[in-house]
Specification:
The protein has 131 residues and is an alpha+beta fold. It has a single domain, classed as Alpha-Beta Plaits (2-Layer Sandwich), CATH 3.30.70. The protein has three helices and four strands, in the order αβαββαβ. A four-stranded antiparallel beta sheet has the order 2-3-1-4, with helices on one face. The longest helix has 18 residues.
Length: 131
Amino acid sequence: MACGMLCGCAATAPDPAHPQQATGWVETRLYFGLGPADRPAAGVGEAGWRDFLDREVTPRFPDGLSVIDAYGQWQGPGEATPERLHSKLLVIEHPDDAADAARIEAIRTAWKRRTGDRSVLRVDEPASVSF
C-alpha cells in the first residue's frame, strides 16, 4: 500500500507561496511606533492598527505574516530623553526579490504618511524557510 492509503497523505500540487523548502528568502521585520507608552490615547489605537493592517499590509502580503505587540524606545537627535513607544512588530517571510522589496517600502511609506512618523525601522535577514 502507498503512504497515501496508509497515513492519509495525498499528493498535492506544489504551492509556490508555501514551499516545502526554499532558499533565496528573507525575513523582514518592521517596527511601527503606535504612540507614547504612557499616553496610549495619544497614538494609533488597536482599531487604527487593524485598519492599517487590512488596507496596506494584508493586500500586499496575503499569504501570511506575524504581528507582535512590542514596547520600544527611540531618542531623536537633540532630544534629552528617549521617547518610549507602544509598538507593533511586523514579521514577513518572503522571497528576496524586487517586487516584495517594493511592497515593503510601500507599507513603510503608507505608515509614515498616515502618522507623520519620521521612520519605520526595517531589518532584513536571509531566511531558510519550509512549510
